[in-house]
Write a structure and sequence with these properties.
This is Slipin family protein. By secondary structure, this protein is α+β, with helices and mostly antiparallel strands. It has six helices and eight strands, in the order H-E-E-E-E-E-E-E-H-H-H-H-E-H. The radius of gyration is 25 Å and the shape is rod-shaped.
Length: 178
């Protein structure tokens, strides 16, 4: 009798351990013995304990700040530029299988792309054509993250910090023009 109760408790524990719930904004990427089965969700799923493993991936739009990057513009002006990137996972299986950490990888791509694009622009272009630069950044980052199942929807340059000497020179020039 005690053995039956013990076995019943073990079966109940195994059944409870095999139940997974995936919410509307998530997908569960399921692996069976290390092999990709696919992305499932939303809903209730039963996994085979020890054999199946599930990684939850959020499909909501995420964002992160690109920390200020020190860059020298095309016309040799040192500037500090930071940005914000909005992106979401469109292919959960790729985001788990193709790259170890899609958030960190997207951040690294965004940092290097921001430095590259700002380095190719002149200061005047940085200050006056921000929308054009934002669109260019978004296109480049989106193309590079596409193989990972990531869609970059928006990139916004938040702040451009120029040296104080340049600020004073620009203020003097503006005053002369008035």
């Amino acid at each position: 009798m005690g053995v039956i109760i013990f076995l019943a408790i073990v079966v109940i524990i195994i059944l409870l351990a095999s139940i997974r719930v995936v919410t509307e904004y998530e997908r569960g990427v399921i692996f069976r013995l290390g092999r990709l089965i696919g992305a499932k969700g939303p809903g209730l799923f039963f996994l085979i304990p020890i054999v199946d493993r599930m990684v939850k991936v959020s499909l909501r739009t995420m964002n992160f700040d690109v920390q200020p990057q020190e860059v020298i513009t095309k016309d040799n002006v040192p500037v500090k530029v930071n940005a914000v990137v909005y992106f979401r996972v469109i292919d959960p299986a790729k985001s788990v299988v193709e790259v170890e950490n899609y958030r960190f990888a997207t951040l690294q791509i965004a940092q290097t792309t921001l430095r590259g694009v700002v380095g190719e622009a002149e200061l005047d272009e940085l200050l006056s054509e921000r929308e054009k630069l934002n669109a260019r950044l978004q296109t480049i980052i989106d193309e590079q993250t596409d193989p990972w199942g990531i869609k970059v929807s928006t990139v916004e340059i938040k702040e451009i910090e120029i040296p104080d000497s340049m600020k004073r020179a620009m203020a003097r020039q503006a005053e002369v023009e008035r």
